């Protein structure tokens, strides 16, 4: 399909880089877009797909390499799917701890049975900046939102995300376990199939 020994990852999130590189294995080396630019594109899309494509095109344009982007977030049932594509900006760009505090506050009076949520991940791969046929792969991970943070692993909302199949939070999971179960793992399994790596 294309020479995929090197891909630039269109992300400034070190947690994503670590997880995606572990899932991809040694056949494909992910290089961070941070090697080429510190400027983050504005995520102006109205969907995970649009933002993933926008980030991938931007990284391919800057690096001259094929680019992979991950647009992901947490969709909380009680909040009508919010923060969704705005997950990283939920607390106005103040970071993960502020995002988590805001989510706990928003759900403080919501009972267990109404705390369902899913993590969403869309991966977009473009061969070049103007690629007319990006590869798109989606993964979902169903769980619920805890009443208090738990766990030290992972990043983002992991300490608040209860994983029913393991009876612990996503941040309690060892990285190898999260990388088997997560929204990102599911999207990457599909991408590996599409690339003939599976
Ligand atoms: O496995 C995950 N475990 C915990 N939290 C997660 C996960 N996956 C996404 N998330 C959260 C983090 C951030 O609040 C938002 C992603 O936002 P998103 O714009 O896709 O990523 P980002 O701004 O951190 O990095 P970048 O855009 O440079 O790839 O969802
Ligand atoms: Mg972002």
Automatic annotation (TrEMBL):
Cofactor annotation: Mg(2+)
Entry EC number(s): 3.6.1.66
Binding sites annotated in the UniProt record for substrate: 11-16, 72, 155-158, 178, 183-184
Cofactor annotation comment: Binds 1 Mg(2+) ion per subunit.
Catalysed transformations (reactions): XTP + H2O = XMP + diphosphate + H(+); dITP + H2O = dIMP + diphosphate + H(+); ITP + H2O = IMP + diphosphate + H(+)
Keyword Hydrolase attributed: yes
Keyword terms, alphabetized: Hydrolase, Magnesium, Metal-binding, Nucleotide metabolism, Nucleotide-binding
Source taxon at top rank: Bacteria
Family recorded in the similarity comment: Belongs to the HAM1 NTPase family.
Function recorded in the entry: Pyrophosphatase that catalyzes the hydrolysis of nucleoside triphosphates to their monophosphate derivatives, with a high preference for the non-canonical purine nucleotides XTP (xanthosine triphosphate), dITP (deoxyinosine triphosphate) and ITP. Seems to function as a house-cleaning enzyme that removes non-canonical purine nucleotides from the nucleotide pool, thus preventing their incorporation into DNA/RNA and avoiding chromosomal lesions.
Protein name (Swiss-Prot/TrEMBL): dITP/XTP pyrophosphatase
Native source species: Pseudomonas farsensis
